[in-house]
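step: validate -> pass
step: tokenize input -> pass
step: predict -> running
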Amino acid sequence: MLPETCIFLFCFLICVPSLIKAATSLNLTLPSQHPNPEAVAQEVQRSVNVSISRRDLLSTSMNDQSQCLTGNPIDDCWRCDSNWANNRQRLADCAIGFGQGALGGKGGQIYVVNDSSDRDTVNPTPGTLRHAVIQDEPLWIVFQSNMVIKLKHELIINSYKTIDGRGANVQITGNGCLTLQYVSNVIIHNVHIYDCRPSGDTNIRSSPTHFGYRSKSDGDGISIFGSRNIWIDHCALSHCTDGLVDAIMGSTAITISNSYFSYHDEVMLLGHDDKYLPDSGMQVTIAFNYFGEGLVQRMPRCRRGYIHVVNNDITEWKMYAIGGSGNPTINSQGNRYTAPSDPSAKEVTKRCDTDEGQWSNWNWRTDGDVMVNGAFFVPSGGGFSTQYAKASSVEPKSSVLIDRLTINAGVLGGPRDNSFIMHGSSTTTTGGSSNGGGDGDFFGMMFGSGGASTQLSPSTTLFFSLLILYLTTKHGGLL
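step: predict -> pass
step: emit ->
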């Protein structure tokens, strides 16, 4: 047996590098990676242009619908429906950009969280958020009332889930916060996330049939690890130990929109390591967000991949706004960059740990951005090529419209940011959580329509598992 095993291992070690090299030359893609990211960026701009034109046209007639339109294509998709609370799953049709395919819990049951406690990470109480997010079937998760959920350890979210905080003031804080690891189709909407701290060295359940030991987490607000089809919308994030949103280890098909970021150092990391090749397939849309008070850097910080930063209001960073290494493509369109008063921190961009001889060919471009208070963007690479000109045939709306597009960034229906936090204590100025013990009816009506839950075939899953395992061991270990 031993000789046969040795022969197999020898052949495996000889063949796999050749396969990896061949696959790389053939542009091996991640599941859900779009083959033409420029087309996705173009479609985002088209949707903004259409929404703004519709608003301007209807505003002349002064009808009821014109009063609710903002020109923001995501919000205008669902907020003009006065009956939205009875048609919550309409939201899943409103995403734009690379994460527009995120189904969340569309087509599944409504799960009502009526208990804000988090007592047991292995056997969570029915009616709690932890019990809801670990289920295997698609679920659209809503909240019975205002609540502050103080997590005991990180909340591991299963595939096909929507966390929908509309209609309640939902605050998530404590140990670990939200983890999306090797999952797909998750929507996180309209929740406050703050004061997330490292935790772990314990058992945590990730599905009804599995729990396992978790080492210490980083203390991210939202950690996206090897996941795809993710949409984060209308959230407020601040005061976490590590990143507010981190997406690493071959994650892709992500949109982060309409959110309010404040009071944090390293805001957003996209990419695990410069040498981690699967992150070349990372594709992220960052749209209509407000990057506000007390931020230092990483709005975002990118490694590899294609990052579309569009129509955001990015204000007063302490070090830089957009940084990167490992040759990412950064497409900055129609943003407003407001530099701090510090004369040494006016530059929007930072090539991290890389000299100009290396980054001069990186594709970093600015189109329709407005620079305020001395801000300046240093472009590079082939962003001015014929290919880029074709992708930019839909001109981005001027960032003079940023106030309109980001007017509702953050949480809807209450404080849109996390300024209400009495930081340094566990007390907040809002809350009123329900602690009913979980004996209520936490499942609601069944929605018959919606997308089917698609899964990778076992052979595809095995192939990518072996590929990622090899690349991870070759180019840097798992976090």
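step: describe -> Residues 8-27, 384-393, 425-462, 468-479 have pLDDT under 50 and may be disordered.
step: cleanup -> pass
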